[in-house]
Amino acid sequence: MVQCEMCGTETTDPSRIKVEGAELDVCDSCTDFGTELQTEEESSTSTKYSTSSSSGSSGSNDSRSTSTTTTTSSGGGGRSTDIYEDVDELGQDFDQRIRSARERADLTQDELARTLNEKASLIRKLERGETLPTDDLQRKLEAHFDIDLSAGGDVDTDGWDGDSSAGGYTLGDMVERKD
To answer: 24 has which bridge partners?
Structure first.
């Protein structure tokens, strides 16, 4: 018996459906909540979280990577990349960077707004940190002032010594315990 991944009911014959991009094994009463998927071979289909490997390899790491590969190769919505991976995060001090760049260029907020074809009130709100620039406005500002408003490279890590053998920082490297 298998549990329905939506309602938790025990079912002997789960149906595979797609709901908002996620593939679920559900009971008959929950199939109306998604689009039923047609499976080519019931015996060779494995789920993302299966513990047995369809290729006969042993070890939990091997079976997990095999399952993920199977899901991805069958076109089952198994994107392995994060959609936000390529997006540059805006630096926390973007407002100060914009103001100092404008002042270095000896421009008023009104003059900058006219140059960028934006409203002066938007420039004021940006410099006060009350609003975030759109991607288009961020590109305009970066091109006009030849500055970088993204967070990359501006993190101060001078005083941090990570003890992790992998070379990265762990939570234990940054947290002080209060015993």
So the answer is: 17
pLDDT in tens, 157-169: 455 555 545 566 7
The answer as to whether 69 is a domain residue is yes
Asked if residues 4 and 26 have their Cβ atoms less than 8 Å apart, the reply is yes
Q: Within 13 Å, how many C-alpha atoms sit on residue 140's CB side? A: 14
The answer to whether residues 69 and 15 belong to one domain is yes
Does 60 map to a domain? yes
Q: Which domain holds residue 21?
A: 2-73
Contact 68, 78 (CB under 8 A): yes
Task: Identify which of 20, 28, 21 has the alpha carbon closest to the alpha carbon of residue 2.
Answer: 28
Query: Does the predicted TM-score (pTM) go above 0.90?
Result: no
